[in-house]
Amino acid sequence: MAVLTIQDLHVSVEGKEILKGVSLEVKGGEIHAIMGPNGTGKSTLSSAIMGHPKYEVTKGSITLDGQDVLEMEVDERARAGLFLAMQYPSEISGVTNADFLRAALNARLGEGNEISLMKFIRKLDEKMTFLEMNPDMAHRYLNEGFSGGEKKRNEILQLMMLEPKIAILDEIDSGLDIDALKIVSKGVNEMRSSDFGCLIITHYQRLLNYITPDYVHVMMQGRIVKSGGPELAHRLEAEGYDWIKKELGIEDETVEQEV
Amino acid sequence: MIETKLPFDQQYVRTFSEGNGEPSWLLHLRLQALAKAEELPLPKPDKTKIEKWNFTQFSHHVVQSAPLSSLEELPEAVKALINLEDEAKNLYVQRDNTPAYLSLSEDLKEKGVIFTDIFTAVREHSELVEKYFMKDGVRIDEHRLTALHAALMNGGVFVYVPKNVEVETPLQAVYMQENKEAALFNHVIVVAEENSKVSYVENYLSIHGEANAVANIVAEVFANDNAQVFFAAVDHLAKGTTVYVNRRGVTGRHSRIEWALGLMNDGDTVSENITRLIGDGSYGDTKTVVVGRGEQTQNFTTSVVHYGKHTEGYILKHGVVKDSATSIFNGIGKIEHGASKSNAEQESRVLMLSEKARGDANPILLIDEDDVTAGHAASVGRVDPTQLYYLMSRGIPKKEAERLIIHGFLAPVVNEIPLEGVKKQLIEIIERKVK
């Protein structure tokens, strides 16, 4: 069973400290949700875990099954079993979605173990059908000209194709209408198993109506300030964040404009 | 010091022309051109100094090669370009300056399509060739290199598609540089008469890795009223070959010319591609991809000139530059007075893969008419780190991620090539060059 362990993580962007000591453990079989208003460091956490070059870890550790994630390059992190569904996926012209997915899958499987073309096509067809995606999305250039909803769905397609141990979904729900939200949730729920852990970053409770988390954490000022079960998300939905701020004596919950 | 005196005289040109059995109009044109070549200056490609390049000194103007008795004799690299299985293929192969193989389907012959080497064409279709040869396309007196081209033309093909004929299978031409010191003055003419349609695909390639040669290439494309011409080229001449290549198109009313050019030479190159949209409602689309590597200097000028009303012109140029190569990209959209309701669009992007590489994208719009639309986008930069991060976050190693991005960047031309063998070869060339 996979375990992602984050301890006392401090992260700076362009010299400015955004995360100020985050500790969290995500195990296979668990779904965690990190909630919080804008600008509290949620996306910074996800980028730091994946290794975005702009984010500098100044203190603390991240391990996956005991292996030091911070020592790994971005691609090594992915091959070790991490996945980040991005808030703003890149558009890459001239590279078809299918070619990209096959390259990613083969990188994971390693030289000599590449997936056969037929098997790949079957798998891709199956997942695309499951996510109710138009078959020609496979042959379009990666995210180029995709609508916001199509991009998010495409992130989930990648998740399902690559089958990581631990996935981070960074605001996968932003800009989605209710139908798209349901499909995206269906994809994530399909992945649920004891081999799959997930960290969902969102500032709306809405998504959690479709994907029930095991744990809910609230982030403010670059730290996790409160943790609980799914009931915490319901209370946030009903009452907002002010009660937490009051309880903890926080006036301004933000750290810096989120990048 | 580069010798500027031409190595050939009137007597040589006369003997050469007569030896080919050329009609007198061509002999006279050649002699006239030779005289002009002595006095005209070199072209002046913007931002590249070519005064010291060798365009005129070479060892062999003519080398003797045997025609091919079978395509099996071809080197593997050339065989790979050709669909050997296809019985009805339309194929011309030239070994240096010698026409070595020709096949044209019976069906097309019956329809009156002409696809033959330029020497046969001037002998058998003299008037037709004369009508198009260096008149409304490229003129002999533009500069020294066009003049020299006419004087010394020693190869090429003539394509003629009669009115209302649609050629389904692309016509393919392969020009092989076999002799490392042979000069190539290749001339291609493609004429599509009213309502006709044709695709022509050409490859220039060297059999050896390095040469000491000169290539002076002219292609003239004429799409008459309502005709459609698709012209694809992959140039891959060896290091040490100084290349001047001028591809030009002229449109009639409501006609289309589309270019897909993979310019992959390894020597110093000046490439010019101009489409003149003369006819109202005509359309020109030019896509060019380029890789510069090693020490080479290249200059690519692409221009679409609008004369007719309601004309549309599109320029796309994507270039990759690595090592200490220099590549200059000039894109010119020009709308002449009277070409109302026209649209000129261009996009030039250069990807730099090393510190010492030099790349320059110069988009130019020259507009002499009010009622038009135009736009351009240009950029010079490195591989986008955000794109790299995205691909790597899926487990793709950095090198492979870069490779994908670069291939994607050059895909606009690769995807247009209608012949599988040629397309695959272009992908392989790109692969080798950017590695």
Automatic annotation (TrEMBL), chain A:
The yes or no answer to whether the keyword Signal is present is no
Q: Which CDD domains does the protein's record reference?
A: ABC_FeS_Assembly
Keywords of the record = ATP-binding, Nucleotide-binding
Mind telling me which InterPro entries this protein's record contains? AAA+_ATPase, ABC_transporter-like_ATP-bd, ABC_transporter-like_CS, FeS-cluster_ATPase_SufC, P-loop_NTPase
Q: Which domain of life is it from?
A: Bacteria
Annotated ABC transporter domain ranges read 4-246
Keyword ATP-binding in the entry? The reply is yes
Q: Which Pfam family, any one of them, does this sequence belong to?
A: ABC_tran
Gene Ontology MF annotations: ATP binding; ATP hydrolysis activity
Task: Report the PANTHER family cross-referenced here.
Answer: ABC TRANSPORTER I FAMILY MEMBER 6, CHLOROPLASTIC
Family assignment? Belongs to the ABC transporter superfamily. Ycf16 family.
Protein name (Swiss-Prot/TrEMBL): Fe-S cluster assembly ATP-binding protein
The top of its lineage is: Bacteria, Bacillati, Bacillota, Bacilli, Bacillales
TrEMBL record, chain B:
According to its UniProt record, which protein family does this protein belong to? Belongs to the iron-sulfur cluster assembly SufBD family.
Task: For this entry, list what GO says about its biological process.
Answer: iron-sulfur cluster assembly
For the SUF system FeS cluster assembly SufBD N-terminal domain, which residue ranges apply?
109-172
Q: What is this protein called?
A: Fe-S cluster assembly protein SufD
Q: Which residues form the SUF system FeS cluster assembly SufBD core domain?
A: 177-409
Q: Which PANTHER family match?
A: FES CLUSTER ASSEMBLY PROTEIN SUF, UPF0051 PROTEIN ABCI8, CHLOROPLASTIC-RELATED
InterPro entries, sorted? Fe-S_cluster_assembly_SufBD, SUF_FeS_clus_asmbl_SufBD_core, SUF_FeS_clus_asmbl_SufBD_sf, SUF_FeS_clus_asmbl_SufD, SufBD_N
Q: Which Pfam families match?
A: SUFBD_core, SufBD_N
Q: Which SUPFAM superfamilies match?
A: Stabilizer of iron transporter SufD
